[in-house]
Structure formats: C-alpha cells, structure tokens
Write a sequence for this structure.
C-alpha cells in the first residue's frame, strides 16, 4: 500500500463520520535544511458533500543537523499556541508511534503565504510585522499555555532553561570539549545579565520562518527549536546566524531585526552582545551537525569565525 493510502486510512479513522477520505496531490514543500514538509490535499466525503482541505504532513526525521527530532514536542507547541495571539497553523492530528508511516508525524493546516530569504538585508515593509510577531511569541503566558515542558533546566534560570538540549547535542557531536565551547559556556554562566527573564522563545526567528500575506504575518512556522529563555536570545540567535552565513552585524550585537523589535515594542534592548554570544554557542553546535551531514563546512572553520566575532563582541582574548 502506498504511503498516501496508509495516511488516508489513518485520517479516515480520525474522521469517523466521513464516508470516504483520500490524500491527493502530495508533494514536497520548500523547507529549511533541517525540516521535511509534505503538502497534500485532504478530500473528505460525508452527507453528500465534499471538502478539500489543504494540509501539511511533518514526519519525524531519524537523523539530521538538529537531531534528535521530536514531532510530538512540536505538535504540543502548536496546540498550546492556538489560543494565543501568535499566528500558527492549526495542528490537527499527531501519530506518535510510527505505526502508520514508519516514523511519527503530525498533520497541520496549510496556510497560504510567502516566505522570504534567510536574512533582512535592508529595511523592509515586512520587517516591523515580523518583529511584532516575535514580540507576540515572547508575550505568551507560557505557564498558562502549558509550555513548562520546554524547560530543559530550572525554569527560574533563563540560561539553564535553554541550554540543556544544546549541551546534549554537543556531546552527541563530540564537540562538547572544544576549548572555545568550554570557555564560552563558562563565560555565559558567569555573565548572565541581571535583568534576564524567562519567556517563550521561537528559537530561530529568521525571515524564512514567517509566512506573509502582503505586509502581514499570517503564520509563524518551524517550532522545533522552541524553548524557554530570555527574549533577547531569539534576537541573539538571529545575529549569530547572520554572523556565520550572512556577514556580521553591529559591534554590540544589533541587527535590523533587533532594531525593528525595539521600535515595535518600545523596549531599550541591552546586553545584545551577550545574547549574540549565546547564539554563537548554539551556532557552533548547529554547524558541527551540518558538517557531519553535508561536509559543507568544517566545525573547525566555524569555530574560527565564531572566535573572530566574539573578539569584536567581548574583547580580543577570544580570538587567541
């Protein structure tokens, strides 16, 4: 039996009032380096009527640059956000066992919209909307939404709440003992800003993770890196992503995204250099996974780039 037929049979079980269910027009959708996304049309017949619903299948990868993957976790995040001001696709069904397609998966609605390239290279009419959507993520009452499970360490400590899974990834990739990572981890623990607080983080707020209709954000996508931590951590990871792939930002960790975020929230953002340093810690681990999968860039080269950036942000000791 073709996988689309197995999926249709499963979805038919979830829709007992349906007389017939079919999965049509299945096709791979554009996605980031770490994601697998399949679009399809769900056709449902019941009571003499036919519905065609645009849907998305997110299967769980067994390996990849951000392994281990957990679609159940992503599904729980989407369900928790359904009642908030954050626009997300509706998460419809979760199959956590792998019995249907060989791997766990979830199914969500397919939202029509346009994605953008990885970086903001100039001021855009869409940038304030993206910044406002990110601010809405940070404003979620994560306890009331039932998102405590995202904390990998003590939820009262923003840094430890966020870094647990990254240390585990570093161990799995055998770079946890890299001198730069050890020194940077110690520095981050010793220098966490006194005003750090715990909020919901998206984890990777680059422009490609937003869907736009005109100037409006209609969906925030790709929640696999969702975490709890200080809101500035999202801005810092974007700055670190830009450092590694798109050119360095400002000397204190500022980017076009952080400037737009400050403008739409009215907040004065401090310690952005700390949060870019935190983002660079994460990027070192991401790129080690990337090198292991694609051979595209050695983790050693990435660590040199990160060290040069840390020297700009934190002082010359990091470049040696």
């Amino acid at each position: 039996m073709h996988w689309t037929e197995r999926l249709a049979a499963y979805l038919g079980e979830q829709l007992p009032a349906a007389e017939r269910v079919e999965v049509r027009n299945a096709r791979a959708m554009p996605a980031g380096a770490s994601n697998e996304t399949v679009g399809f049309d769900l056709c449902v017949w019941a009571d003499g009527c036919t519905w065609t619903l645009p849907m998305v299948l997110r299967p769980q990868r067994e390996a990849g640059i951000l392994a281990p993957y957990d679609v159940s976790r992503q599904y729980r995040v989407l369900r928790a956000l359904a009642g908030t001001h954050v626009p997300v696709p509706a998460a419809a069904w979760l199959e956590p066992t792998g019995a249907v397609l060989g791997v766990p998966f979830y199914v969500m609605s397919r939202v029509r919209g346009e994605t953008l390239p990885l970086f903001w290279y100039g001021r855009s009419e869409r940038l304030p909307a993206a910044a406002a959507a990110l601010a809405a993520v940070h404003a979620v009452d994560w306890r009331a939404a039932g998102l405590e499970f995202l904390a990998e360490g003590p939820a009262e400590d923003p840094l430890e709440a966020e870094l647990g899974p990254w240390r585990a990834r570093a161990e799995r990739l055998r770079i946890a003992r890299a001198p730069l990572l050890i020194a940077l981890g110690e520095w981050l623990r010793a220098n966490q800003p006194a005003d750090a607080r715990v909020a919901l983080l998206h984890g990777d707020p680059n422009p490609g993770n937003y869907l736009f209709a005109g100037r409006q954000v209609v969906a925030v996508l790709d929640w696999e890196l969702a975490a709890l931590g200080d809101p500035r951590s999202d801005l810092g990871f974007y700055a670190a992503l830009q450092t590694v792939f798109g050119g360095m930002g400002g000397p204190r960790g500022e980017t076009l995204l952080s400037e737009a975020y400050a403008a739409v929230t009215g907040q004065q953002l401090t310690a952005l250099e700390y949060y870019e340093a935190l983002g660079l810690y994460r990027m070192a681990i991401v790129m080690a996974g990337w090198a292991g999968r694609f051979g595209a860039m050695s983790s050693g080269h990435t660590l040199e780039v990160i060290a040069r950036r840390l020297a700009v942000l934190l002082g010359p000791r990091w470049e040696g």
About this structure: Residues 87 and 167 are 30 Å apart (CA to CA). The two ends are 59 Å apart (CA to CA). The longest strand covers residues 49-59.
